[in-house]
Amino acid sequence: MGYKIAFVSLGCSKNLINTEQMMALCRQAGHQLTGDPEGADVAVLNTCGFIESAKSEAIDNILQLAQLKQAGKLKKLLVAGCLTQRYREEISQDLPEVDGMLGTGSYTDVVQAIDDLMAGGRPDYFGDVRQADDNGARFVTTPPWTAFLKIAEGCSNACAFCVIPKLRGPYRSRPQDALLEEAGKLADRGVRELIVIAQDITRYGQDLKDGTSLVTLLNELCKLDFHWIRLHYLYPEAVTDALIETMARQKKILPYVDIPIQHCNDGILKAMRRRNTKQDLLDLFAKLRRAMPEVVFRTSLICGLPGEGEAEFEELCQFLQEQKLQRVGVFQFSPEEGTLAAKMERQVDPETAARRVELLLDLQSRVMDAYNDSRQGQTMEVLCEGFDSQAGLWAGRSFADSVEIDGRVLFTSPEPVEAGRFVWVKITGSLDGDLTGEILD
């Protein structure tokens, strides 16, 4: 018997892949998929539990779905993902609204868990996170022209502030053949932009010991019918000369480099258990700019790690102003249970950390404005994603804009533009941080 199953996915794009895998398994089992929990037999909530804000979002979603249950508009609630993996006992004790749980090692048990739920059981599946299967089919939920390809699971970097290795297990690369088969199917479906993701894509293949690497994988992916290949989450100390050469040579690979550096002060980097120094970062950025003069950098920074005084913070501000990294996410340090950083001495007052976040964001807004100014009068290739009725303009993304996290290019066109089509746009202005322009024939 088929049930109506609603899926809600929170957190990162890597989590979305797991949701898409669960959706594919449910569809194969004959269930009906929906994005609206109201009226569903089962709502499957795939959660993030990385930092405090993600935990709060997940709990808010649980409580909202519980209200639907109470109103008789939803029968069962199954919660999966990082929050359940991290707080299995607490959820079981404190959130009776949750009817069943799946850990990060048990996504493939979703069909059995739904059967258990509908038979009156309370499934509690927590398989080995080191054995999670990432090679199954997916029900791709992104727009037809863009898709993610997760090339590895887990992380072995052991940063002092991060709990991901405990939730997802050690780093495990997927076999290259399986990735190329999946990517080939995406290309055949019409995907034009492939976004290569993992917690750390730079270490791809090192654990396989069969000669594969990120370089070998990218060279093969570039043979497929994609127009753009975008890379997410390169760790600075693992970016090799061979990788830079490949990125510069392969024209399908965008000059968009997502490197989460977290800080620049040597003492803070060491406390974070990062494997690079400020000089290493400076040398790497210079090398990437020489190889790809148009390169756009995305990074993430943490304010308020224990030991960060005014001098360390001022050094970070100076670094950001000098390096002019175009895309920056700034986060307040969250002392997560089970991490080394949570137990460190010299904890920074949360109000001080929050103020530093605001100061960095203000600095970064000026960097972004300067970047937008530098683009005026230039012509940029844009992937159209449809018409923005609020702005009254067509909207898309350039090579400098990744999906959902960066800005857009808004442009005029005398004729309708099909979503998923690449067009050339002359940049003539900016609007609330987005570039604006006019389509060229």
Could you please describe the fold and organization of this structure?
The chain has helices spanning 13-28, 52-70, 82-86, 88-94, 110-118, 164-168, 176-188, 214-221, 241-249, 266-271, 278-291, 310-323, 350-374; strands at residues 4-9, 32-34, 40-47, 74-81, 100-102, 124-125, 146-150, 152-153, 172-173, 193-197, 228-231, 253-258, 296-303, 327-332, 379-388, 393-397, 409-412, 422-431, 434-439. The protein has 13 helices and 19 strands. The strands form four sheets. The protein has a six-stranded parallel beta sheet with strand order 2-1-3-4-5-6, with helices on both faces. It has a six-stranded parallel beta sheet with strand order 7-10-11-12-13-14, with helices on both faces. The protein has a five-stranded mixed β-barrel with strand order 15-16-17-19-18. With 441 residues, it is an alpha/beta fold. 34% of the residues lie in helices and 23% in strands.
Continuous helix count:
13
Largest sheet: 6 strands, parallel
* Amino-to-carboxy terminus distance: 54 Å
- Identify the overall geometry: globular
Features:
23% strand, six-stranded parallel β-sheet, alpha/beta, 441 residues, 34% helix, 19 strands, 13 helices, single chain
Helix and strand arrangement:
Elements (H helix, E strand, L loop, with lengths): L3 E6 L3 H16 L3 E3 L5 E8 L4 H19 L3 E8 H5 L1 H7 L5 E3 L7 H9 L5 E2 L20 E5 L1 E2 L10 H5 L3 E2 L2 H13 L4 E5 L16 H8 L6 E4 L9 H9 L3 E6 L7 H6 L6 H14 L4 E8 L6 H14 L3 E6 L17 H25 L4 E10 L4 E5 L11 E4 L9 E10 L2 E6 L2
Parallel strand pairs: 1-2, 1-3, 3-4, 4-5, 5-6, 7-10, 10-11, 11-12, 12-13, 13-14, 17-19
Antiparallel strand pairs: 8-9, 15-16, 15-18, 16-17, 18-19
